[in-house]
Amino acid sequence: MSHCGVNAFHLFKSREGWKITQVTDTRRRNNCQTEANDATAEIDALLNNWHKAAATADEDVFFGSMAPGAVYLGTDASEKWKKEVFEEWSKKYFERETAWSFTPKNREVYFSKNGKTAWFDELLDTWMGICRGSGVLQKEGSSWKLAHYNLAIMVPNERVQDLLKMMKEEGDK
Question: Model-level pTM?
Answer without folding.
Answer: 0.75
